[in-house]
Amino acid sequence: MRRTPAALVRAEPQPAHTIEFDGRPVPALPGQSIAAALWAEGILAWRTTRVGGRPRGAFCGIGVCFDCLATVNGRPNQRTCLLPAGPGDTVTTQEGHGRADLAV
Amino acid sequence: MPTSPSDPAAGYDLAVIGAGPAGLAAAVTAADLGLRCALLDAGPRTGGQYYRHPAPGLGATRPGRLHHGWRRYTALAARLAAHTLAGRVDHLAEHHVWTAERAGGWLLHATVGPAAERRASVRARAVLLATGAYERQLPFPGWTLPGVVTAGGAQAMLKSGLVLPGRRIVLAGSGPLLLAAASSLVGAGAEVPVVAEAADYLGYARRPGVPAAVPGKLAEGAVHAAALLRHRVRLLRRTAVVEAHGTDRVTGVTLARLDRDWRPLPGTGRRIACDALAVGHGLLPQIELATELGAETRRTPDGAFALRVDARQRTSLPGLWAAGETCGVGGADLALAEGELAAYAVAGRSPAAGLTGRRARLRAFAELMAAAHRPGPGWPGWLRPDTEVCRCEEVTAGRIGEAVDALGAGDARTVKLLTRAGMGWCQGRMCGSAVACLAGGPAAGPDSRPLAVPVPLGQLGRFGQPAGPGRSAGPQR
Ligand code: FES
């Protein structure tokens, strides 16, 4: 059997649901964070920095570094490594300071 | 919806902050001894970072395969469940405690929920700080590229979400977490071509009696070593990643040999292809809540600040106790012993026989480990002027150097004010120790942060006002 994280723990997950990332459907397993669902799809970046406009994604994975911020369901500055992916959630790449719509 | 104890006089005997090994052991032991406890934790499930495990929806039938000593966790979780059912412990999940006030006993303020959408206050006679640690990071060119993650983060995302950042993952940095992370990543299907450890492990050999007194630690090391051997992972000592390559994501790294002081040796660089890099240079105790209150700290042999506690886990502040990594990073076994010790002390009882000696042996090993992996003074040798040191504010090594050389900044605080390094979202948790070092040596004391976790302004604005009706977070007798 191929070694995978799921095989390691003999996972029998509940059916996946779908979230949307920048308009593209991304499957998420129940209980996965948004960051985990994106990683599972090979997506590593979902924010650009304020000064250099450079791509960033999850770094610390535990809510400390704030590199994984994204706009989720219209709310900017959400730490996607902490936020569970809910069915139908829309995630958009957060550009710059994330206050484009002033919805802080 | 706000929540708060509706009756301010009500309170717990003990509030434990953090539900990792130390906090769990403390809460269940204290409840065994008859105390009413609140167990507050930022995560949705108990276990902390060490016993982090998949969400129930992921249906992991063998979660223990991601862990060392998983049975100890399941035993603690079962005891906690029994105490919760009997009303002796309230497990308050997703509570991020951001400040503690002295109010007769203690009044803790927390935000609640993954997006901090609610708030809660908890009153208790005694508080035990078991908040664990986060990783120390030393910057290098390219460390902000997507695909470069912390070693602990790679492990955390694997343990809770069953995902990997890439297929071919290089591990680098210093400390035992690297080996643990490498062995779980290869177990989960990643190819790990190299683990690069910046220290040389000779530190352990200096006092051979200390590791010999904690055979469990040696066995744990042997398990990881065997897993690495089996998967042909190469362990390089005195080697560091001096650059991560790529434009939109990491595509490779350059490794270089280090001298004794961690200065890269010229001409030793070699490039390795990978699609992810996991890095970490040991752990830093997470002690902001206590230091803001004025608790005394001590410098650990790896240059970090930890809370100073006495033989019974008491901090310098009456009614405030600490256990586990907050007292100096030492791993789960030590955290379990210290949590239990603290619970006995809070309950005014003498500890179970053997516990004190066990803690002393494990603590001695922890100090030896910290000394062995202490970052060498030469690591800034792998920085370039355009290397970002502060990830949040995008402050480069060049600008920090300018603040020190041209503007005369002599300490981390001044550098911070001149450059904004460490003043962004993470409040210096990622760059703090590096900035201090570049500013001319480690800070005289731990970082000061008025808020231990981020708090929405709206909630701060309501600070001091009653939180209104809602679920009581105090005990309901
Ligand atoms: S990855 Fe660090 S806060 Fe989410």
Automatic annotation (TrEMBL), chain A:
Instruction: Name a GO molecular-function annotation.
Output: iron-sulfur cluster binding
Arranged from A to Z, the UniProt key words for this protein are: Oxidoreductase
One Pfam family linked to the record: Fer2_4
User: Which InterPro entries does the entry mention?
Assistant: 2Fe-2S-bd_N, 2Fe-2S_ferredoxin-like_sf
Renumbered to this chain, the signal peptide range is: none
Instruction: List the protein's name.
Output: Proline dehydrogenase
